[in-house]
Amino acid sequence: MSSDVHDIGGVPVIIGAGVAGLMTALHLAPQPVVLLSRTPLGTEASTTLAQGGVAASLGADDSPELHLADTLAAGDGLCDEAIARRVVEALPSAIDSLVRLGAPFDRTLDGALRLGLEAAHSRPRIVHAAGDATGRELLHVLVAAVRRTRSITIMEGMDALRLIVAAGGLVGVVAARQNGVVALPTRRVVLATGGIGGLFCDTTNPLASFGHGLALAACAGAELADLEFVQFHPTALDTARRPMPLVSEAVRGEGAVLVDKQGRRFLAGVPGGELASRDVVARAVCAQLETGNRVFLDARQCLGPKFSKRFPVIEAACRQAGIDPAVEPIPVRPAAHYHMGGVAVDAEGHSSVTGLWACGEVACTGLHGANRLASNSLAEAVATAVWVAESVAGTCAGWQWPRLPAIVPMRPDPSSVRRIASDALGIIRNGKALRQAVTTLLPLAVGATAAADPALVAMLIAIAALRREESRGSHYRSDFPRRQAAAAASRLTLCTAFESAVAVSWRASERSS
């Protein structure tokens, strides 16, 4: 495999081309920027699969304060209140920016934005596009805008493999392309690589989304935060298809109910019912499945023949599986969906490594805490991308020629890690399984195979889950089922990795919620 250094003039490099990466690139214009995408733009990004919309306090009976209160409640004591306040206050203007770019949000007959209700929101505040195709529609608009912007150099088919660090800061990116390996000299890198769902057998994420950005950041020495908090969506379509089609929370917002195979509504006595927080609903569905029951989402009474018009993407997925949601209940089960943890960043997206920023799901801003509020994910990406871009633009562009590392890792493949992660890091965890997972993952993480980076990410999540000896938000330990009185955010740094061991430093810090 050939290798060389490709002169990009030290311009910023954005790794990832979902909504976070595209928005950051657009906000940097007219400053030059290089955008790296593993696949052609608009394909295999989690954004394209996002059925939920963008949350913003736009209704006459709503306010940023109410949105903030709902966000803090869902975060179960671990949100950074200052960050959460800044984000929710920025969202109405962020929606205006998307409209100006051409985002085709759904509207009422009088032309106002149509606002939907989703779990744990006290007001209807979710804007959607094409019903249940918000991510796809947003990505289409943003890709078109990026392709029109001459200051953005798009490098498709480029898989970032390592960040090169020298003298305490970034000096380049090592990436693989079809005909070899290339180093891109830059002191400014933005990670926008998405989540970790591809580590699990059951996921709504693209199968390649294994936490790529977390591996890059960890190997560069960046601090990671709250890795143990993985959100499982309660209602993925229960078929053999992978990734699993999502059955949006908005369906439950319209009045659909969860029932067992006898048609019994098993959430009737739970506060909030089907619109309780996702961790509560996911555990309730999981409990049914563990008894041998199948679980169904029944939208016949609330939607019936209107289902196909309101949720065309979900209806098409059901039809493909031989299900007509207008006249029969939809089989569902939980699936790994979103990661609240990530690269620890400040309000401008800075990581602990000089020259490294993170934006979107790969970042841990403190907005989501222990459990993300529905539709706050796209919202976070569009709100924070402008702050990341401003910070990158205001940083010195000096650079130097990087040296290629002696050993360049293989392109990652998470397939051999999925069963290990699924068994130990699922909805209900316990110390014995977590310790066994760390033991099993360690030799893979320090090896020289395609499983190394996925195994490293899964191992770090398992270590974080072991250290949190309580149940909080999406993290549930059957051996520590109670919530501790004090909320502490977890911080983890990969110090060294060598032949048979990994050194990890750990600390806890209070969150301002």
CATH fold descriptor of the domain at 2-177 and 340-393: FAD/NAD(P)-binding domain
Q: What portion of the residues fall into strands of 2 or more residues? A: 15-25%
Computed structural class? alpha/beta
Total helices: the number is 14
Q: Whole-number average pLDDT?
A: 92
CATH architecture of the domain at 2-177 and 340-393: 3-Layer(bba) Sandwich
The CATH class of the domain at 2-177 and 340-393 is identified as Alpha Beta
**What composes the largest sheet?**
5 strands, parallel
Low-confidence stretches: none
Distance between the termini: 50 Å
Radius of gyration (CA) equals: 22 Å
Total strand segments? 21
Helix amount: 25-40%
Strand arrangement within the widest β-sheet reads 7-3-2-11-18
3D shape: globular
CATH superfamily of the domain at 2-177 and 340-393: FAD/NAD(P)-binding domain
Report on the structure:
By secondary structure, the protein is an alpha/beta fold. Helices cover 30% and strands 21% of the residues. Among the domains are: 2-177 and 340-393, FAD/NAD(P)-binding domain (3-Layer(bba) Sandwich); 233-334, Flavocytochrome C3, Chain A, domain 1 (Alpha-Beta Complex). The chain has helices at residues 19-28, 46-49, 64-74, 81-101, 134-148, 212-219, 249-253, 278-290, 307-310, 312-320, 376-393, 418-424, 431-445, 452-467; strands spanning 2-5, 13-15, 33-37, 54-55, 115-116, 126-127, 152-156, 159-166, 169-177, 180-185, 189-191, 223-225, 230-237, 257-260, 295-298, 330-339, 342-344, 356-358, 363-364, 488-498, 501-510. The strands form five sheets. A five-stranded parallel sheet has the order 7-3-2-11-18, covered by helices on one side. The relative contact order is 0.18.
